[in-house]
Prior knowledge:
- The complex is a heterodimer.
- In chain A, 32% of the residues lie in helices and 16% in strands.
- Chain A is of the alpha+beta class.
- Chain A has an 11-stranded mixed β-sheet with strand order 1-28-2-3-7-8-9-10-17-18-20. A 6-stranded antiparallel β-sheet of chain A has the order 21-4-5-25-26-27. Chain A has a 3-stranded mixed β-sheet with strand order 16-11-19, with no helix packed on it.
- Chain A is globular, with a radius of gyration of 28 Å.
- About 2% of the residues of chain A have low confidence.
- In chain B, 84% of the residues lie in helices and 0% in strands.
- Chain B has 5 helices and no strands.
- In chain B, α4 runs antiparallel to α5.
- The two termini of chain B are 14 Å apart.
- The mean pLDDT of chain B is 90.
- Classes of the chains: A alpha+beta, B mainly alpha.
- Chains A and B meet through α1 and α2 of A and α4 and α5 of B.
Amino acid sequence: xxxxxxxxxxxxxxxxxxxxxxxxxxxxxxxxxxxxxxxxxxxxxxxxxxxxxxxxxxxxxxxxxxxxxxxxxxxxxxxxxxxxxxxxxxxxxxxxxxxxxxxxxxxxxxxxxxxxxxxxxxxxxxxxxxxxxxxxxxxxxxxxxxxxxxxxxxxxxxxxxxxxxxxxxxxxxxxxxxxxxxxxxxxxxxxxxxxxxxxxxxxxxxxxxxxxxxxxxxxxxxxxxxxxxxxxxxxxxxxxxxxxxxxxxxxxxxxxxxxxxxxxxxxxxxxxxxxxxxxxxxxxxxxxxxxxxxxxxxxxxxxxxxxxxxxxxxxxxxxxxxxxxxxxxxxxxxxxxxxxxxxxxxxxxxxxxxxxxxxxxxxxxxxxxxxxxxxxxxxxxxxxxxxxxxxxxxxxxxxxxxxxxxxxxxxxxxxxxxxxxxxxxxxxxxxxxxxxxxxxxxxxxxxxxxxxxxxxxxxxxxxxxxxxxxxxxxxxxxxxxxxxxxxxxxxxxxxxxxxxxxxxxxxxxxxxxxxxxxxxxxxxxxxxxxxxxxxxxxxxxxxxxxxxxxxxxxxxxxxxxxxxxxxxxxxxxxxxxxxxxxxxxxxxxxxxxxxxxxxxxxxxxxxxxxxxxxxxxxxxxxxxxxxxxxxxxxxxxxxxxxxxxxxxxxxxxxxxxxxxxxxxxxxxxxxxxxxxxxxxxxxxxxxxxxxxxxxxxxxxxxxxxxxxxxxxxxxxxxxxxxxxxxxxxxxxxxxxxxxxxxxxxxxxxxxxxxxxxxxxxxxxxxxxxxxxxxxxxxxxxxxxxxxxxxxxxxxxxxxxxxxxxxxxxxxxxxxxxxxxxxxx
Amino acid sequence: xxxxxxxxxxxxxxxxxxxxxxxxxxxxxxxxxxxxxxxxxxxxxxxxxxxxxxxxxxxxxxxxxxxxxxxxxxxxxxxxxxxxxxxxxxxxxxxxxxxxxxxxxxxxxxxxxxxxxxxxxxx
Lengths: 824, 123
């Protein structure tokens, strides 16, 4: 055939070479979102090469860096129990095992935090990277490294941890790189202290990277000051604060400006609005309420859920410590957990530690700004963003003494929200400086290391003083019988409402000069009621002298938890933990009878009557198999939307709405309020009209979405929970999980947000503890331990922990690590 | 004589390509499959022999590795990769995988044959 072809052989040969070469090139490189197919699908070095990967490290390992022998026992859930003779070897081994299970995740999180996504996926990530750089994430991480380097014990721990991670990376051959490296086509790099710093600051961003200054300024400019008294009160009705009584103290005073600064705008969209339906819980009961006579503590911090699991369980033992719990992969020690003497857990404190300040520059060079009646020089920081397949992008960020001027002008970058891995955020207000507590030199790693070794409350509280940002509600229990709750961190001492609106960056009165000492932060130790709890609500009552934030989460969750805790007597560990799974809606109890009554005032068709009759006898539990939960939830959300969207922005745009408590209050006191009037109609609506409109609309919407049979509108099918992969790679997450729970409920599980770690511990001797998180210990998607916890987490089951200072008492597979000296 | 027989023997050349691929792929990147297939094409007497020994040889090498690894722990990950591409089942993923050595092996075999013809039109 070839012989007869009219094309000359040389041309055919060139074409064949070019076609073959092009196909090789095409399959060897990622094409847009498509991974490099040749590399990935190659059964020798691609994803199938990971079929050979062992689930656990070999029985014996030798490392020059170790000073003594380390024994690791892997239990049946693949939780590593690490037994070392000293801290250095302990954290080295922790770094190694964390990397063994979670290398890709821990590195990707730090690359994302550092604004280095463009190195992996090219210029599509440039706007995201610029945001991370301009918000000062790397700047903050560098401060964290400075802080870590100042304390020899902290430096030794983080350095040993890094060495352990790098020992694993060094022995890893490219075909055994975790599959995400193969999909995204890049290679791991050595771990550094900066990466640990980035990880911690990334968590600070997740928990404190929100600010209402911008939307509230816009609302004030539109509606005037009065709207805040009516719709945005610091203490709305139904508040049940975390701490009800505190010993008196003399508060620090700071001078307020004579007349508050009134910023213009902002016209651009709001950043950092977080979903206030989410929430974490923790509580502890005293021995008076437990069957054993010892305190019991429970904690379930809620976060945006991702795979691999956010947390990693670990048990760390040296002659000085015996501690177990979870850590964020990439951070040494245990962040939330217990030792033989004490236990602790966290919920987000939600204090305002992020201010925006207007800056007046002398000229367009931005080399000087007006402050304290003089021109002050700025600093310039050049961010170098390497772009895969492109030239390095240089971005100059202007820094004032407040912090970075995040955007120089409106529209400097757009559309970074889809690259924001945790919170979708809009355009930041231009020409304004950001003052953020996480930019300060803070000592959270030292605090965590000290928690792990603390033997009593005094040592714990001393360590807590180092935990500045993100400020958390720390719940505490110990073997001595103490329980406590401490709203921690060192937020600034503010004059009333400082930071509620955009501030004046030229006025020193808007600076943060003093920080609240720990003993003046809201806390409660061994209260007579025999329990303490927190659920992200107001930390203290009206008598507390400091202004900490413009608002906190609603109290319904906290209130329900307290109702349950009050009932406890002779409680077992399981009784205390079961509150984490409580699906009872206090919002339902307060609102449902009223809105049902309103609907019954007017004629209904047969199906509407059936729905209302069923709702009126509904037990108010947001269980997954409840269809009434779907109707009630959608009904309330529709009432909220109809009430606020025409004044404060619609659901599909950036919006900042008052809390549901404001509607509940108006429902009780002023049903004719103008807020209920729909601007789009000529008629005057009131609360009753809105209830009816909302009901009819949601019935129609649910019918269209889920069919006419209302009894099939199950909550678990309508809402359920999705756990996407951290890099949003399809197929590597877990979708359509049949969960219950929701807003204002202890089990505040949402669509993609929820209890990232549930645990409970009883301070007996020996300590009894159990816990679970969605996902699994392994970060390798091909491992059976990648998501083996998830189904149990959905069902509300827990894993009982093996906890002993004696490695012989832990059942499992052993790995022995030795140093060169030991080997001889 | 022996060379002549091999140069016209698709099965024999395919086996040679398979063995060479199995050895070379442990050391070199995935695209090394074009080398043994190209050499097979060069020693082929007819273009059809070069084409089919390139296809069969490379395909078999990848097929052998898939058979070794898929049931031995690769199944779960293959399922996830299948989901990532939005494919209905893993079998389709494996078939698509085998298209890669088939296409490249075949092209390399033809290229090898053509190169030989350029240098020596009577060979």
